[in-house]
Amino acid sequence: MTTGLIPGGQPPDPGPTGGLPQQRHEPAEQEALHIDNRSRSSVITARAAASFEPVGRSVASARAFVRDTLQGWGYADIVDDAVVLTSELVTNAVVHAGTSADVLCLRSDDGVRIEVGDHYPEREIPLQGQAVNMGSPDREGGRGLQLCAALAGHWGVDYTPTQKLVWFQLALPGRPVGARAAGPALPSALLPLADGRVRVAVVQIDRTGALTSWNEDAEELFGYAAEQVIGKPLSDLAAWPHTPGTGTGIAEALRLSRWEGSYGIRGASGRVTSVYASHLRVRDTTGEPSTVCLLVRDHERAVLQTPLRVPASDTATASDGQSTDPFEVFIGSPAPDDLDGLLQRTVERARDMLDGDSAFLLLATDDETELEVRASTGLPSARQRFARVPVEAGPGRYGSARMPAVHDDLTAVPGAVPLLSGTGMRSVVTVPLKVEGRLTGSLGVAAESPGRYSNEEALRLQFAADRIALAVESARLGELERLRRGSLSFLVEASDLLAGTLDRDQTLALMAQMPVPTLSTWCAVYTIADQASEPYLSYVLHEDEELIDGIKSLLSKISPPDPVPTPGARVWSAPGEAAHQAALRSSMRSLGMSGGPPHQVTSASGIGPTLATASAVGGETVVLPLVARNRVIGMLTLGKPTDEHFRQEILELAEDLSRRAALALDNARLYSERTAISQALQRSLLPPELPVIEGVEVEVIYRAAGEGNEVGGDFYDLFPIRDGAYGFAIGDVCGTGPNAAAVTGLARHALRLLAREGLSGPAVLERLNSAILDEGARSRFLTLLYGELWPQEDGSALLKVVCAGHPLPLRLRQDGTVEPAAEPQPLLGVMDDLELYEQTVTLDPGDVLLCVTDGVTERREGARMLGDDGLADVLTTCTGLTAGAVAARIMRAVERFAQDAPSDDMAILAMRVPGLHTD
User: Fold this and answer.
1) pLDDT greater at residue 577 or residue 307
2) Euclidean distance between CA atoms 154 and 38, whole angstroms
3) What is the 3-state secondary structure (H, E, C) of 291-328?
4) What domains can be seen in the chain, in order of their start residue?
5) 338 touches 478 (CB < 8 A)
6) Backbone dihedral angles phi then psi of residue 800, each to the nearest 5 degrees
7) Sorting pLDDT into bands at 50, 70 and 90, what band is 41?
């Protein structure tokens, strides 16, 4: 695609162009362009345009064009909305209106405007003031304007006699800017503790994302010398906690004026160090922008973390002038849409406020039946994140997350707080997060010693939870909305990919590829042939290709999941248990072989890959049934690595994907079955292997027109009649495809039966004519060349032929002359009474008899046609060639005569009597 350049900028990567768009180049002008937007004046700083043909695949190409353009401009946050709206509008143009679609993307200070125009040839312009038809949401078409009204800030429709232009404008996402903050003065005893020298890594990243400086503390923290990393992208080292559809990544964070948050850095040892980072974007004296990043270990975040300042009116003040409002100390200063940052700071402040050893925060599902772990501190967070526990964990008020609860000693009440099982925590206080009386989450603080908390601490924690509940719910809803919009875009593209093929193997591959890595780390697809068959492991994929074989081997050793038709994802524990057992066995073998820990054993022993596979499959595994037409046809299995869980929104998205994938797989199955049946029936219409005739060379070339057709209206046959006599035929039924092939089967089998009854050639064709007419409305006329062949002792061959409306056979003599070998007679399937006669032809040694169907002689290139004369000219060049070489040369000449694929069936039958001395 071609886009206008912003001053000082670079054009975005053009991306894929699979829909064959007709590019419309726009001038890359440096001056600003102006448009009138319904009384809103905008300054256009960049533009990109393309046109798309009126074919179905153009919709996917238009989406790719808009996505690549907006991502190139740095507006990843609005890509999903723009793609969904563009998809609907382009579909209306190329599918419903049947015209090409023009897509224009305009960037301005106010936002991004996208225009989609069609070219309907005759359009009535609405009267001024006439309302635009928004359509019905239940209809297949007409939803585009409703989506524009729902998602776009501004939109409109412009009409001309030949074009309808629908445009919409999306506001740019807000960018948080830097702010100054100050914390209260604290006694030394209240200052955070460090477990040694605090190292602050200082790194600088240029505008391309590459590292330009790396200080000594960075070397100590991460194990890389400066010369090892300078010039490399920070993204090569950063382990960014990305959730599909939720926006900001490391590249976006580096473009913000100021950013704070947590992520990981992969050290030289391969381990990921959790860091807390503060980014500040600056520019040097030449105006070149760069980003300075300060990084400390995550548990030392107090060195960099900026506290939130609250209005004085909302803050209680103690006698010494210091703030005593727990909310100020409790909440911190996350960005308004950073849910993960907000939750992480919440649990850290809650732990500090009650002097606990750990804290956790869970968010409730929409139906308030389960709680999902979203943040924790002092606990194995990787194992707990996105784990789900029931709201009502047991009898009584202490087993419900809807009420505050204090447990003095968890060892006395096992399982009271399932999240803390096996963590060493003894006492815990939990309080609900509620908004307008509805449970939205639960906050808890735990300690390793018993009896640490009383009702007073529960009241303090509840007060803080009440202050933060609305902010958490608002951020959660914002994240959920972004995730759902991203999910809609994901499902649209998945549906396009699945609808683009009817090949079963390719459909299975797509089903495994689409969830990885967006929804899961690995995926396995089981298929079920019929109700009596066991599930079969058909496809396995992991984001690390080196682990695929190991996972496939592991899954093949355990029983497949039960094909339960109940919709929704269900947990499948067998892979995790098998992975755990495999890891134990590998560890025992490792200790026995080397006497050292497992990681010291080389991969050559085969133990390293086993441990890696066990780790890759050791997390949560879920199974989604593939149900199509009220039958379970397979299972889609999604998995996470060790100690990781699925979030509920991802499982809901996976369920939507499984429904689409099941229907696509069943359609591919039905298509494959019908194709196999069709091919088997078609092959039955072709003769078996040609008989070997002593003293005569025979070669046949057959091409059926139409994709997937092996037999059409043209046919041939060569068969023994009796000792020393052979029958041959080449014919052409009116039309092509299956209907013509049905008459082909009738003709070929009737010829064999009648010829073997001892009837002459004319009698055989007259009875075949009657059989065709007996078909009634299904009958089709037929041109046929039928003959009988007798090889002679002197090396010649005697032929008796009847040419019923068929192109005349051509005889090639040794001297290069070509002449017809029969006379034309009436075709079959038209008249009741036929008077046919046979003609006798003798092929001398070295002579060739060429028989073709009209697909050969009527080969066209524009107004030119090969014709009988053209065929005869090609045949004159075949003197001295074998029958196979003659047939091949004729076919090459036909194929080279025109560039387009043949539109008619073609059959070539060449018979040659070898020369007495030359062969």
Assistant:
1) 577
2) 9
3) EEEEEEEHHHHHHCCCCCCCCHHHCCECCCCCECCHHH
4) 44-120+145-171 (3.30.565.10), 201-303 (3.30.450.20), 333-380+400-481 (3.30.450.40), 501-586+610-676 (3.30.450.40), 686-913 (3.60.40.10)
5) no
6) -120, 120
7) low
